[in-house]
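A common beginner's mistake is to predict each chain separately and then try to dock the pieces by hand. The better habit, illustrated here, is to supply every component at once so that their relative placement is modeled jointly.
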Amino acid sequence: MALTGTRHEPPADAPATAPAARGKLTPYWLLLPGILWLLVFFAAPLVYQASTSVQTGSLEEGFQVTWHLATYWDALTEYYPQFLRSVAYAATATVLCLALGYPLAYLIAFRAGRWRNVLMVLVIAPFFTSFLIRTLAWKTILSDGGPVVSALGALHVLDLTDALGVTEGQRVLATPLAVVCGLTYNFLPFMILPLYTSLERIDPRLHEAAGDLYARPLTTFRKVTFPLSMPGVVAGTLLTFIPATGDYINAELLGSTDQKMIGNVIQSQFLRVLDYPTAAALSFILMAAILAMVTLYIRKSGTEDLV
Amino acid sequence: MAAPTKTPKAPAKASRWLRRNLVVLAGLATLAYLILPNVVVTVFSFNKPNGRFNYEWQRFSTDAWTDPCGVADLCGSLSLSLEIAFWATLGATVLGTMIAFALARYRFRARSSVSTLLFLPMAMPEVVMAASLATLFLNMGVTFGFWTVLIAHIMFCLSFVVTAVKARVMSMDPRLEQAAQDLYATPLQTFLRVTLPIAAPGIAAGALLAFALSFDDFIITNFNAGSTVTFPMFVWGAAQRGTPVQINVIGTAMFGIAVLCVLVGQLVGGRRKRS
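With all components supplied together, the output reads:
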């Protein structure tokens, strides 16, 4: 602040980052177009959809607001299996993402040395091939006569997973395993990037200090590294779980009708059945459920200042 | 203490090595999981399938590479996606950069509500946003097509651009601008010659992200495109009707171009850092 001299006098309590704070209205002019865009095309549609969810009618005769709250009840009782399935699949995929993503993020942050940038490129680059194409590639990888199914079959893993109900009839495609595998794959980068960001901030000297105090590697990880990476764990979990719950692409491409998730139901209600009130009610239930789970999770994990 | 014996035998040595490098091995396994589909996409771009679907290896052929536009509508959908991504990137980057500067540089009353409004689109399942925007368009009698897709893409890319640009602007030293002003630079000169160049990497990152998000978006486009077919929509349709090998060619090319861009960026960035 000392550098400002006498030409500009910022008020005493102004933040250090406001050298150009001349007009009081400037921030509002900067915000106006973008915020207006979000209000009109993001917030207003949500309100509109709330009103749609309590309408009745048909596409031909038009829809009227009749406060028909039964739509919510009907949607819930008819589609609760898909809701439960979505949460179960998304939660499993999130846990798998954390288990798979943590070692890679750790490797890049602490062990990669001069390979760090190369590994980062390899994590981000798959993003750029259309993810639908990559998801379709899993059809090839998991196909009935393919190497994965043969190997799992030879190791009698499929007998076990069949018994658990995760696969069916010695095949992987069109089973819960395939859908969860696709979800895990598609959302893994969303877990790795925040994990990496939080791990990278940890001072490696803390590891040395722990070692000097006779902590074994595992103890160092449990008491130093993991707690310090919590913001990344929380952010990664949310970034994986929320979109995975609403996803309908993996269930559609890799699953069968038995693996339909709530996203599939909303999509077909909206685009095929053209039952807009039901689609709107389902969207709202999904949103509320996610909001409730996320709030609970953030409370539990104790990083409320994150959001 | 489970200290290893002083004269470890071969198996003990191996298990020690394994324990020490467990993280590396697990990390590389995850990397393989991430890259595997890309390898499959590339390999199958050289396939000559027997039926309509390209899921089983038949025999080697470069037909699809020599004739990438040989499938009806494929290249049309590709250029439409590029066009939408270009305008969506431009729109979201301009609007997002303005918001980012306002948030990073000014204290004002609506600050926290603005932050919440920006956070929500990133925290909401895409299908909810997609369905509600489509409901609005439907009720207003708007014809679905290029414009509705563009509006939707700018809407959901905006928050990501703001996040990327804001991070960069927040981390820059305000004294640089103050110094410029002390040296009698006009506000415009300060902005163009000091502020903008420093913020540029953040803006570039935001723009790149917006381009990638828009180009690859399926869910929001699916609800708001009507009969307009973007590239992801084409692939989705192909998954039902038959997947031409050309899809793999495009996928492989996208991967190659992306890797090349990142490598060039790294080289340029690395050189700049050193000088």
